[in-house]
Amino acid sequence: MDMDRVLDSFTVGTIKDIVDSLTGFNLQWAQVSTIQEPVAKKNKLAAHIFRHLKDPAHQKHYPVLLTTLRILSRDKNGLDELFTADRIEILMHLSRLVGEQENLTYNSDNFDARVVVESLKCLCNLVYNSPAVRHICCNNSCIDGIMLRLKMYKDPQLPTEVKYFDLRILFLITALCPETRPKIRDQYHGLIYLMEAVDLILKEAEEPGQKPSKKSQRKRKKDKAKVTVEVNSHSTEQTNTKKDKDSHSLDNSSVDLCCEVLKVLFNLTVTCDRVYLDEVEEAHFLRLVGILHDLLLTETETKEKREEMLNHTINLFTNLPSSCYEELLVPIEEIGRIDNPKYEYEDKNVEAIAVLLEFLDKRLEKPLKPYKGLQELLSPVLTCLSNMARTNRIIRKYLRSQILPPLRDVKNRPEDGETLRNKLVRLMTNPNTDVKEMVADFLFILCKESVQRLIKYTGYGNAAGLLANRGLMLGGRGKGSYSSESEDSDTEEYLKVKEKINPVTGYYEPERPNPMEGMSQEEKEYEAMKLVNMMDKLHRTGIVQPCRIGEDGKPHPVEHILELTQGNLEKLEIESKEDSD
């Protein structure tokens, strides 16, 4: 539909002509983000639409009018001219994002979900595309209205779509306007209401009368600072004692809603102090980890939606204080024996940790273009698991039992195979520096930062990068603090060939025939000189740089080959002096 014809319908046509022309226009431009028309012409169309939106007589046509505005709001060109502050206020009222007193007047009557949703969609586009609109929404009733409606999430009359786009706007504001985060988190008690929203979503997927085998049924420990807030005119004590329920699957719309909540929570916690917490903050984070524990164990209708939900859950875990990870471990004595004994470890239910490991395994199997997107796929889950393993003994021991169990396969390279250990060791030599460092760091933590143990499971060649960066090429331990108890128990298969395992490759190599056997002394000297000449050529052309290990445990380049023997010569001199009479 030509824009001139649409404008003509506003000038000379009836309301039916206007609606028909806008309907055709909306169909034509439904999948397009940029409209190639002059800004003045688009502004004229917007002015006509907002004039009709202010007229209650046209209320039944609001959805069509707002759909056209939504299409116009996708194009960044001239956006601030089309959507001025007074026009934004019209959208605010149509979306019912108004202050508390106004809310009592406007929000209860004539609530048309289609109008509210279309208005919210327009605001989403505008907040995303326009810094000026973001500034307006940070200073008008937008945040007030969203937080007020967030308190009403228990209301079954509030459509899921409205909740979703409310949270979408809140996510965009907290992502693009960092200055709003403390206000939403502290002044509006955002963490509390958002956690309540996730709890409500989870309760919709539960059924009473079942054995509590999955969900954490215990009261969150250290929840001393119980906060009472008003939610939809009801007092809700923020405790975490749940009824005996078992999980059903979340439908797709609930997963989408949950993911938006998690994204907002991520923005609100990304700058939080994770070390120095007061009592209230600690109580909130403990409760949040407990809710995320339950979320990890909640099923969804499709595998794709479950992966999406787990991805956002894991992203949020990377923001949380490591002292709260204990909440992922449910004492068996509190919930009773579980159906699957493989999730019991040291009298704890570790199913949530097993879900994280399964997620990592699936990420490692994803087909990718060479090294493209690998960091984005692996960084959150590796960071999350590394933090957990570094600070929690039981989680570290469980992860190690699954990834680095006592060695049995000693006749294959550590990187060959399809176990989690094999897949991770392969990445220790990945061209992506960030990926290989994250993987090496994770495995090093599982080994309690013992160089000897890391080499045992990965081979010196695979571990060389990490050891060089940390100055540990001569052995020793990292700087981490871990329990002193031993976690090593060698298998018979390993002990039988322990002395024959090549520490560089990390596996047992059968004896091979000597390639120089049968050669004369002259032939051996010839081959040796040939090798020396090739090494010299590589050195002179800059392809390789010989180095020696310095006192700091790191490699240092040498200018001359004799420097490689300097340490040995000094050692020989010292020994000869000690032997002299």
Automatic annotation (TrEMBL):
Residues 207-250 are annotated as: Disordered. Keywords: Chaperone, Cytoplasm, Guanine-nucleotide releasing factor. Residues 230-239 have a biased composition (Polar residues). Gene3D superfamilies: Leucine-rich Repeat Variant. InterPro entries: ARM-like, ARM-type_fold, Chaperone_Ric-8_A/B, Gua_nucleotide_exch_fac_Ric8. Residues 240-249 have a biased composition (Basic and acidic residues). It is found in: Cytoplasm, Cell cortex. Its main location: cytoplasm. One of its GO terms (biological process) is G protein-coupled receptor signaling pathway. One of its GO terms (cellular component) is cell cortex. Belongs to the synembryn family. This is Synembryn-A. It comes from Tetranychus urticae. The gene is 107364082.
